[in-house]
From TrEMBL:
The active site is at R46 (proton acceptor), E188. Keywords: DNA-binding, Glycosyltransferase, Nucleotidyltransferase, Toxin-antitoxin system, Transferase. The lineage of its organism: Bacteria, Pseudomonadati, Pseudomonadota, Alphaproteobacteria, Rhodospirillales. GO terms for molecular function: DNA binding; glycosyltransferase activity; nucleotidyltransferase activity. The keyword Lyase does not apply. This is Uncharacterized protein DUF4433. Residues 4-234 form the DarT domain.
C-alpha cells in the first residue's frame, strides 16, 4: 500500500479552537467557528452540489491534500482570496504568512474505523469529474503520483521524511499528461465527520510569531484532551520554505 503524507491547510487562528475540541471537524459535523481562507461560493457548492458515492456532500468530510503546494495555496499567496472571520465577515485578504498545515499520513486511517474517500482530482473540479475510492489497495494507481514526484522538488520536510513535491503544477499542453495537472494535484483524501488529533503528526507554521502562538495553545489546551504530557509537545525545528517551523510531538497513532 502507498503511504503518503496528507496536508490540511488552515488559518493559524483556527488551531486554538481545534485543540480545544480535540479534533478537526467537518463543516457539517459540529460547529467549529474559524477563519475562512477559501472562496465562499466553492465552499457552499461543496455543501450542496458536490456529493460522494455514499450520497452525502463533500462538506460532511474533513479534506486533506497530498502536498502543501497546490493551486489554492498559490492563489492565496497572490492575495486573491478574501479572509473572513468566524462570523463570516470579510476582514481583509488571506495570505500564506498566516497559513499553517496539519500533517498526517494515509496509513493512519487504514484500520481506524473512520469512513473516508480519496479522489483523483479536486472534488470541486469543473474540468474533470472526480472519481472516489475507499479501498487503500487502489491508492497507488488512482492518484497520478508522477505529477507530485517529478523534479524539481520543493517544500521538503526531512524531519518527517517528506521528500517534497514538484515545484510546477500549472496546466500546459505539452506533455499531454500536464493538461489537467493543476486539478490532479488537488486530489483529496477526505475523512468523515472529524479527525481526532491523535491522527496528526505535526503542525507546520510559516514564522516564529505564529509558531509561538501555536505552541502556547498546545501547552494550554492539547494535553488535557489527549492524555499526553506537555513534555511531548515541546520540540521545535526550523525548516520548510526557508523560514518555517514544524511543531512536532503531536500524538501519533496508538
Amino acid at each position: 500500500m502507498t503511504d503518503r503524507h496528507i496536508f490540511r491547510m488552515m488559518h493559524f487562528q483556527n488551531v486554538e479552537r481545534i485543540l480545544q475540541d480535540g479534533a478537526i471537524h467537518a463543516k457539517n459535523f459540529r460547529t467549529q467557528p474559524g477563519y475562512q481562507i477559501s472562496y465562499e461560493n466553492i465552499v457552499n457548492k461543496r455543501g450542496t452540489v458536490y456529493r460522494t458515492p455514499a450520497g452525502d456532500v463533500v462538506n460532511d468530510y474533513v479534506p486533506f491534500y497530498f502536498s502543501p503546494r497546490t493551486s489554492m495555496a498559490h492563489t492565496i499567496s497572490k492575495e486573491n482570496v478574501p479572509l473572513r472571520d468566524p462570523s463570516g465577515t470579510k476582514v481583509g485578504v488571506a495570505n500564506m504568512d498566516d497559513v499553517i498545515f496539519m500533517v498526517s499520513h494515509t496509513s493512519h486511517f487504514q484500520n481506524a474505523a473512520l469512513p473516508f474517500w480519496f479522489t483523483d482530482v479536486a472534488c470541486n473540479s469543473g474540468a474533470m469529474v472526480p472519481e472516489y475510492k475507499n479501498d487503500f489497495s487502489e491508492l497507488q494507481s488512482h492518484v497520478e503520483w508522477s505529477l507530485f514526484d517529478e523534479t524539481p522538488t520543493v517544500a521538503t520536510i526531512p524531519e518527517i521524511s517528506y521528500n517534497g513535491v514538484c515545484r510546477y503544477f500549472f496546466d500546459r499542453d505539452n506533455p499531454p499528461e500536464h493538461s489537467n495537472r493543476s486539478t490532479k494535484r488537488m486530489a483529496e483524501f477526505m475523512v468523515k465527520d472529524q479527525v481526532p488529533l491523535k491522527f496528526i503528526d505535526c503542525i507546520v507554521t510559516k514564522n516564529e510569531t505564529i509558531k509561538q502562538s501555536v505552541e502556547a495553545w498546545i501547552q494550554a489546551d492539547l494535553p488535557p484532551k489527549t492524555g499526553h504530557s506537555r513534555r511531548e509537545f515541546r520540540r521545535m525545528v526550523n525548516i520548510f520554505w526557508g523560514g518555517c517551523h514544524v511543531i512536532r510531538g503531536m500524538p501519533l497513532m496508538t
